[in-house]
């Protein structure tokens, strides 16, 4: 009993001629049949290892997506069987002023928030790209908000910062601006959301930093010799050289902005009261989608809204890809 | 020796494996069987309700009492704040897994009956598991819809004007049963001028108050399948609201929105608020002042349009244990000890036995008891008007659009139009 074998020898299960060969490295070609067998075996193992992912994809992604596509054309209240109504959900959406309002709020948020965030990310990345003392600390400090930023707790903190008689309100009052907190004001609440996303500029900043490191030093040296100033070097060297990275960031952040939900939901009310801010002031698209689906039990309509969002984001992405020919420079042969 | 130890180890491993398997099996049985429970006849029922920590403590104590009396029934609880409660309930119910018994309110009876979610408790009454004796003021009829018994009231409450007492005294306003809306408007001006505070926190969005006002004028917010008032009615109501905000009679809606979920009265933004009488308890814990109850203003000096509202307990149609659920509801509404634990947390107890068991000693609960007794004495209570399927969405829309009006993002005409559009969709009319 003392010699319990815990691991099967590595060669077990291989054909005879394989057993004499080292597993890697040059070998005489094995017979086609053995190859086939090994290939099938390896495929099987591969599929086996992938199976949790495949099952997850089919059950949790593909299945629900197909179901949701079907629901988008039905009247479905969660309780009764879905009733096919064709395109009625879509025509109802376009006729609904609340829906149009949510589209406007979302577009405004994307158009104002995304460029601001990228500008700040690029600016700070330019500062941090230079060698200076405590560089690692600064990078970590600026990146930290992005790490914790997606969490619900930050949104709650944000709400506390921007509400009535909180720190922002009091600071405003010092300067003689008495307009109250931002979260109770239908005009101002969206600015607090923009501030939240801009504050989380760390992720694009890190990508910009990586891009800046790739710009060859010789280009700057050559430009300097030719008498180019700081701005000139930035416009004519840095920007074109990091344009692929810029493109990537623009794409990613735009898509992210369209999908804003949790921060809007929590800052705008969350538990108790109107979930979309005072007078729908922070009612972004996904917020209204949630209200229709879970508060009004209109899953069919909510599904239709979700698919429309998907199509809209796909279109915006396509336009961005089309536009890159004009402003994104890839190095030859790279 | 060596061999022996190995054998021993193997046995131990085997035993461990076996017990693991058994435990796993046990877990599976519990998980799948869910409520069915173990073989010894013990049954577990799930009870969901909305509310806060304070209510949780009281309910926990009540359940401990119940489990002592019915050792074969275990109760598992689950609670959320009001809005989150219904989201979760919707999801669970549509997935075929609603709680066995849950807190309910009038606005949801027809909605969930139409969706086939609610159990008719009538047969349980006939079987003797649930008693309808001893309810106050005809409350046992409260949860009846189309001949089906869909909910059992646990407590009753009534709309009231909760006031900041010192502010009212300072302004020299003494509200009395039978005061009119003109008296009320004059009082608002007095409070603004003498105490420097808005008189009300924003009554234009309180659906239940508007309902009383309509009933005073021979109408109602809801009929059995739709709205019981016209666009012109609502326009008059909201026009008055707009004017009141401009004149500083009602609190600045921006400020009210900021301090949510705290109430405007407790935050000293307004001297009063129309709400359910038992909310006085909450304001007292939130605010620094002394709070009291004033009667609802009337149109003709007599009729307030008031009725008793109530929290109810309803059961799921899919429950595996209708008998145990009925026994649980019966215990919660009749057991005197439960009333001592719960107090007026869910309104004044619905049954006479529980009403007698809890004698409030603190001024706030005493005031609530006095207020409800004064309503009975004044004879203003009427039967409630039914709420149609979709009423909950209408209420949410009324609240939201009322707020938008207050915040100035909508004109009165626009707000009225929007409310009627959304309500028609919700009510399917």
Automatic annotation (TrEMBL), chain A:
Q: Where are the transmembrane segments?
A: 44-73, 107-128, 140-161, 188-212, 233-252, 304-322
From the broadest rank down, the organism's phylogenetic lineage runs: Bacteria, Bacillati, Actinomycetota, Actinomycetes, Kitasatosporales
- The entry's keywords: Cell membrane, Membrane, Transmembrane, Transmembrane helix, Transport
Q: Which residues form the ABC transmembrane type-1 domain?
A: 103-320
Membrane topology according to the record:
Multi-pass membrane protein
Q: Where is the composition biased (Basic and acidic residues)?
A: 14-26
Keyword flag Transmembrane helix? yes
Under what name is this protein listed?
A: Sugar ABC transporter permease
CDD domains under this entry? TM_PBP2
Q: Segment Disordered: which positions?
A: 1-35
InterPro entries of this UniProt entry?
ABC_transporter_permease, MetI-like, MetI-like_sf
What is the source species?
Streptomyces akebiae
TrEMBL record, chain B:
This protein is called Extracellular solute-binding protein
Task: State the organism named in the record.
Answer: Streptomyces akebiae
Please give one Pfam family short name. SBP_bac_1
InterPro entries named in the record: Bact_solute-bd_prot1, SBP, TAT_signal
Kindly give the Gene3D superfamilies that the UniProt entry links to this protein.
Periplasmic binding protein-like II
